Amino acid sequence: QVRLVESGGGLVQPGGSLRLSCAASSGICRYMNWYRQAPGKERELVARAVSDGSTNYADSVKGRFTVSRDNAKKTVDLQMNSLKPEDTAVYYCNVVTIVTMKEYWGQGTQVTVSS
User: Which of 22, 32, 59, 102 could cysteine-pair with 93, CB 3.0–4.6 Å?
Assistant: First the structure.
């Protein structure tokens, strides 16, 4: 069982920045991801950090968000810059373990972009 603890959400003005962090309790993760879900919308993949060092981003956040992982610390961060009101959502940390390919979710953290 892998527990994920997220931190860093909050309220920020448009154009501002926030950094989300997620720490896994155990396990070696192939994928460490950030998803988000806005009210009335489906959950969507925002950014992915793969164990081989590669990263992927949703088109809507490319150039503004940066995902980074620390394998030794079992953490994955999401640096969000130039935030827009449409980035408002609950952000979820998600990991997939490398051996069993089991998926785990964090509890979610609210990000609100508003003036």
Answer: 22
Q: Which of 91, 65, 76 is nearest to 29 (CA)?
A: 76
- What angle (nearest 5°) sits at the alpha carbon of residue 33, between those of residues 70 and 57? 105
In the prediction, which pLDDT does 26 show?
83
- Output the pLDDT for position 82: 98
Residue type, 60: S
How many Cα atoms sit within 13 Å of 51 on the Cβ side? Answer: 13
What does each C-alpha distance from 66 to 4, 29, 34, 36, 40 come to in angstroms? 19, 18, 11, 15, 26
User: Is 99 buried (19+), middle (13-18) or exposed (0-12) by CB count in 10 A?
Assistant: exposed
Structure confidence at residue 31 (pLDDT): 96
